[in-house]
Target: Planctomycete cytochrome C
Amino acid sequence: MMNFTVRFQFSCRPKMTFVGVIFSCLLVGCIALSSVGLSTVAQAAKPEMAADFLRTNCLDCHDGESAEAAFDVSKIKRDLSSESSIAAWIKIVDRVNSGEMPPADYGEVDAKEKVAFVGEVGDWLRSHQKRNHADLGRVQARRLTNLQLERTLQDLLAVDLPLASMMPEEQRTEGFTNIADTQSISHFQLETHLQVVDAALDAAFGRATSERPLFLKNFSARELCRNNPRRRCREPESLGGKAVVWSGGPIFYGRLPMTMARRGAWYRFTFTASALNSPKDHGVWCSVRTGQCTSGAPLLASVGSFEATEEPKTMTMEAWIPEGHMLEIRPADSTLKKGRFQGGQVGAGEGTPQNISGLALHSMQLEEIRPFGDVQRIRDVLFGDDAKFANQKRSRSLKVSYDDPKHAASKQLRRFARRAFRRPVEEIQLQPYLKMLHESIADGVSVSESLYSTYRAVLCSPRFMYFSETPGELDDYAVASRLSYLFWNSMPDWKLFGLSKEGKLRDPGTVASLVDRMLATRRGKQFVTDFTDHWLDLIDINFTEPDRKRHGDFDVIVQDAMLGETRAYLASMLQRDAPVSELIKSRHTFLNSRLARYYDIDGVQGDQLRKVSLTKDSHRGGLLAQGAILKVTANGTNTSPVLRGVWLADRILGTPIPPPPSNVPAIEPDIRGAKTIRQMLAKHRESDSCASCHRKIDPAGFALEHFDAAGKWRDRYFRVRGKGLPIESADVLLDGREFDGFDQFRDLIAAKPEPLARNFVEKLIVYGTGAAISFADREEIDRIVEQNRSSKYGVRSLLTSVVTSSIFLSK
Model:
């Protein structure tokens, strides 16, 4: 967790011992907010012919302890009273409908019986779920995620603290953290919530009532160098009037102690740099990171990267730097020759005779900034236009006052509660907070401290922590929140509040017109990153570290560029309303010179990502050939066609694969390289209990074997000595289409875009509503997909159709 130093404290803050009281109130409030009745939904009668069909076509193989794939049809409940029985019936319908069951060797099923079975059981499932949705809502009570809480507090209080770092890691379901059914709330989580609220309020009130100027300092090259010019250390050395860092291995080499943050804040640093001894065909790629840069705190946070050239250039970057952390700027291209330095410390002039590449810093400016609002905005948010500020004796803080404290503070509380609860607040709901505020002022507590304590109570309310939605069609304010948390992961702005007040947000045309505006905002530009971090598991990019012996040219600069490639590619698709088939195949991607060199693509210059056209024989283009995707679907050392095939089926093709039976052992790679993974998987594919899933998994996994664990193309497996075995990627898709290699596989998948469109729609609905796709949702999803056939399933058109759908506009 990240600690924040706070200099603005209130003696009236409630102690943490009242967490239990708030927890009880929270549970009661959540029940009220969810508007969930406790009566059992009436069960519709099971179709009469279902039992006969199962008895005739399924029980021979799926009955008793020896049932195939441990799926005993005889034990399935004959009603829909539990989620497990619903899931079992859906599984049966899907497998019968796809022709997967009964298997071909069992004998052909009468076509009319099959259609009747699928239709009647499907109607039974659909009608049951629709009744449930009408009575209870499709989405249960849903609270703000860590990211949503952070951004909501940032926008509500005009502060910029990275609050999510203070909270425990969240459970992810289908990649997402906002699924209502798997969210929980505990005393520990509530205590953490209070700590986060306190940190945000302390920062806001502290800044609003302080006269402290923002930090600003300019550093010359000499000031960026080590204090003792002859000392062996890891700071830059002074050479030719510049602060020089050579290409080398010592950890934290290039740290700049003079940039250590006195207080946690956002900083803008502008620096001029040039390269020393650049390679012939490119510049010196350098990383910019932050951390304590000591052996006791080895982790560093990436800020960015750049390519230094012989000609000096000036760069500007912004980052949150915690108190006590500093910058580290160094050559970080793993393909550069590294200098030899004794004992992990670098002596003055050691790099010069070794003729290694280096970085020369000419100057730097470090400036504290407030990206989410200046002091005046914070004061408007907390105190309104009527507040007066005066200096307090013997203090650098300001005293807040009103001509009519009770009336002005009450007015401000109403405004704050309306924004925090994201809807108008009825007077009866506001009374406890008004009472608290008035009693505090009457007891002689200052108006600022009284507002602080009352705001804190508001921010602990379930009306703030949870979405306020009732079963059926959402009201305008709930629609505004659905839209804002989909696109921004934050609260609605005044524009959305205004449209809600005017009653315009239940009009699909109005909602559709908001898409462009919301994506164009500062928060909207983060939509692609927020969505893909979870949909594509990009949030796990740091989970593995490629083996240096096998992937010696991989480094943090390459990894950052890979993330940038995927995000820029998808942002471009969204902007152009590109057909969904481009998720799989295209003749362009986004590269800078370092990533292009890593991919063995010539002709790309500069350190900024730019659109690059690919040659016809290139294997790149589309998500499946992008390094970020390939890295998160591998373990850093080996690749697994099973893991990649399962990931592709779930995240791209929309055909989730169930977990393997408990009695089936996992496949371990042959570290000797004597057998390919394909050879070891042969037994799995021959087994009846495994083949049904492996026919879906293996073709994609084998095709992707042409990419190693760090995203580079290969024709053979790695072997320490001698040539590794060749990649065998030919296979057959489930529908019978054959392919020979990754390129043909990609062509076949892109040629049938409808499954890609359906999956994209489903992921957007899950992300935007906080509920998994139900059987009853399928009709509306079919309508959305069909509606966009003429646009070749443009991704922006699909997004617009999702936010105007009945699923999105209903609880």
